[in-house]
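Hey,

Quick one before I head out. I ran the complex with flavin-adenine dinucleotide overnight. Inputs first:
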Amino acid sequence: MSILVFIETDNGNVKKSSLEAVSYAHAIAAQNQGTVTALVLGKVEESQLGALGMAGASKILHADDTALDTPSIMAYASATAKIFNDTNSDLLILAQSALATPAGARTAVKVGAAMVSNVIEVPEVSGDSFKVKRGIFTGKAFETLTVTAPKKVLVVKKNAVEMKTDGGDATVEKVSVDISEGDFKLKVLETHKQEGDVLLPEAEIVVSGGRGLKGPENWGIIEELAGTLGAATGCSKPVSDMDWRPHHEHVGQTGIKVSPNLYIAVGISGAIQHLAGVNSSKCIVVINKDPEAPFFKAADYGVVGDAFEVLPKLTEAIKAVKS
Ligand SMILES: Cc1cc2nc3c(=O)[nH]c(=O)nc-3n(C[C@H](O)[C@H](O)[C@H](O)COP(=O)(O)OP(=O)(O)OC[C@H]3O[C@@H](n4cnc5c(N)ncnc54)[C@H](O)[C@@H]3O)c2cc1C
């Protein structure tokens, strides 16, 4: 089985979610005598390529056309479809994102493949049978699909697989892709990045506060814990609606979807709309004074207690461990 992995970069750096996609592809390849080729489009720091080998790619194809330095869904789809066909690939893997998911869908159309998004497990492959599990209803339910098309595109949810770091060296080959003016019907003119030490969508750790914090004047305990952990801060929707916190910190179905290794929810009840934004987190810790708060059902660890007592003690304890 020949597996191509679409690699998403940010300013020349390979995204962690793309390393997970390579690890995912490696897991499939290991069970099905497959090969894993990573496709990098546009600018990438040479020093970043080693991680793709360690994640399980045996070959890296780099299309270093400067036109691809600026993200473009249509151009990425054209380039990926060409390489998919040129390499006689059977399977394309992408890590779910606002850019990669639509690029994967367009690529699927161009190469005549079936696409499955929101994939959460390595597929079961046996002979011609290819079964894949995906999350539906914002992660509240799962379904298993049989994919009968010979060519397949799988879009994998963040944090669905463990990242492999013990692979080897991958060969790097430059490739050219045919992209045309028609691939740039939409052009990015300017990009303004959210400012702050740790950006919420990319954060490895998030400390989030809800209405249980009582008011914006109490956010110091959230910020201090976040600062101690090197975390980003988030909040529930009512908190940003009431202007206690800026809107770009609002986490959930209608806000930012996060996928950190650790999500600490403080004074948040755990409404379904909030959970929809955090259910890709690897580990969820809930601090709430109500033992019946629904969030405890989704938590890996729970502390029943008053945030104003628990948080300062937790921050002090973490500082003590760190010093
Ligand atoms: C269409 C739609 C979309 C929505 N999208 C989102 C979304 O994207 N994100 C989102 O968050 N919400 C969203 N909501 C709102 C959601 O339904 C909830 O109303 C909201 O998440 C509740 O926020 P909260 O948990 O901060 O507040 P509350 O529900 O008021 O919960 C506060 C919690 O704090 C606890 N608490 C109180 N005092 C303390 C204390 N001293 N120490 C510890 N714990 C304490 C309480 O026990 C309680 O569990 C949406 C709603 C709708 C209808």
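The two ends are 50 Å apart (CA to CA).

Talk tomorrow,
K.
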